[in-house]
Amino acid sequence: MGPDIMIKQNIPCVLVIEKDGQDKRLLQVALKASGFNVLLANTGSEGIAQSKLNTPALTILDIDNVEGDPFAFVDQLHRCGKSPVIVLSERGQEHDVVRSLESGADDYIVKPFRLAELIARSRVALRRRAGEEDESPLRLGWLTVDFRARAVWRGGEQVRLTPTEYALLLLFIRNAGKVLTHRYILDQIWGADCTEESVYLRVYVGHLRKKLGDDPVHPKHILTASKIGYGLAFEPDSPSSIDNY
């Protein structure tokens, strides 16, 4: 193992999948200076191999240079491991952001970006992943959450959530019965730089409702306060008392 990929113990490891040599070196230097271990991959296939071999705590992926369908690759990378994925791209259209999030990305940063912003968002993603729960499993009637295993069950079937979906569900659970504003949720889940990115919420709340078996048209569990925010019903089986999104 060469000096550039030597892994120091007990330090978060970030996998960077970037083809452009200058951008890759810049990311490597910035991440190392911020206290991260860094793994590098030039191609998507190299990134998948690195992810399986080293299980990084976070993956940063430039989708502009991925061979083939970039969104299919995001989905493949997401399914390969449980670590968060931050997508980098020059594509700034909302449909590109939505497709990336729907494919399993946890965050999306449009180029050009400030390195300080990338580092901040990386830390937010890692804090979400590293938060270990010591609480006993929680039963909500239709749902069971095992905090120690970071596992969610609907009836007898395990629900596969992304790290961001899981973090969002926990935020709702800890504030059950309260309406959380869009800005507050975005700040808690994605960080202060994302408090205006309401598209993130539309995508992820939709994902949670679908995976948890909550009717997106007439939700009973994850409710919506129109133009204000979202909240988890205090009584899971109670009828919706606030407007749908």
Description:
With 245 residues, the chain is α/β, with parallel strands linked by helices. The chain has two domains: 3-130, Rossmann fold (3-Layer(aba) Sandwich); 138-232, Arc Repressor Mutant, subunit A (Orthogonal Bundle). 39% of the residues lie in helices and 19% in strands. The protein is built from eight helices and twelve strands. It has helices at residues 21-33, 44-54, 70-80, 94-102, 115-130, 163-174, 182-190, 198-211; strands spanning 13-17, 37-41, 58-62, 85-89, 107-110, 138-139, 143-146, 151-154, 157-159, 180-181, 222-225, 229-232. The strands form three sheets. It has a five-stranded parallel beta sheet with strand order 2-1-3-4-5, with helices on both faces. A hairpin with a 4-residue loop joins strand 7 (143-146) and strand 8. The longest helix is centred in the middle third of the chain and has 16 residues, at 115-130.
What is the secondary structure topology, with strand pairs?
Layout lengths: L12 E5 L3 H13 L3 E5 L2 H11 L3 E5 L7 H11 L4 E5 L4 H9 L4 E4 L4 H16 L7 E2 L3 E4 L4 E4 L2 E3 L3 H12 L5 E2 H9 L7 H14 L10 E4 L3 E4 L13
Parallel strand pairs: 1-2, 1-3, 3-4, 4-5
Antiparallel strand pairs: 6-7, 7-8, 8-9, 10-12, 11-12
Helix pairs in contact: 2-3, 4-8, 6-8
